[in-house]
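The instructor's notes for this session suggest beginning with a concrete chain rather than abstract definitions. Hand out the sequence below and ask the class to guess, before any prediction is shown, which regions might be ordered.
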Amino acid sequence: MRIQSGSRRSPASEVGDDADRGLVGQIPDRELHDRVIRFLTDADVRSGHRAEDLLDGAELDRAERFSRFLARRYYRDRLMRGFRYSRLVVPQSPAHAVVDSSEFEVILGVCVLGSLATAESVGELALRSLLYHPPEHSWWTDLLEYERAFFLQLATSENRMGTAVPQKNVSATLRSFSSSMPELLAALSSSVPKDHRKTGEATLLFSRTHQGRIYVAEVDSNTAAVFGAIDGHRTADEIAALCSLSREENRRILATLSNIGSVVLPRSETLE
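After discussion, reveal the predicted structure:
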C-alpha cells in the first residue's frame, strides 16, 4: 500500500423570556455549551420546537444568519483545499464559488456542519459546476472525482463508533481511476498538462483519522477486496473467507486500514 498524507458571561441573563431564563439557568454549563454548538451547526435543531428555549425571536434570527455565515466559511475553505488542482485549470470557475449560489442556499436549509450527508451534497454541487465548463482534457473527470473524494475527508468530521465487527469509517471511500493520479497531480503542480496522457490505472482509498489526518492510499487488489467486504455485519474471519485470505493476512490488512482511519475495528479481544 502506498500512502500520501495528507471570561464567559452567563447566557441566562441574555436569552428568552422569564420562563426561558429559568429553564436555561437550570442547564449545566457544559450541556448548554453543547446545545448552543448543535444549534449553530444543525439546521434541524434550529427549526425544532425547542429552539426558543435558548433564544428569543430576534436572537433566533441573528443566530440563523450567523450559522449560515459559519457554514459558508467552513465549506468555502474546504472546497478551496479540496479542489485546488482543478482551480489551476479553470481559475475562472473555482469550486468554492458555489457557496454563493442559490443551490447552496438550499443546502444551508438542511445543513448539518461536518456531516457526511452535507459534505456529499456540497461536493456534488461543486462537481456539477465544474463539469458544466469542461476543458478538453481526457483526465478532467478523473481529477474531479479525486478532488471530490478528498473534499469529503476535509468536510466530514463524523466518526464511526466501534462495534463487535469491523466497520468502514464514515467518509472512507475507494475509487478507481483510469489515469495515474500521482503523475497527473505532480504535473498539475508544475504546469497545466494539456497533453498529459493516461499512463495507467490506480485504485485509491481516501480516509480521515479521528485526529483529522487525511490519507490517500494506493491499494492492491487484496486490500481493495477486504475494504469492499466490510459491511458492518461480517466478522473479521468471514471477511477473510470471502476474500480467500489467510486469517493472518486479513488481520494485517485490517490493522493497516485502521491505522489510516479507513475502518474502525472492535476491541482486539473481539477479533480473537
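Then share the key points. The first strand starts at residue 2 and ends at 5. Strands lie at 2-5, 167-168, 173-177, 202-208, 214-218, 263-264.
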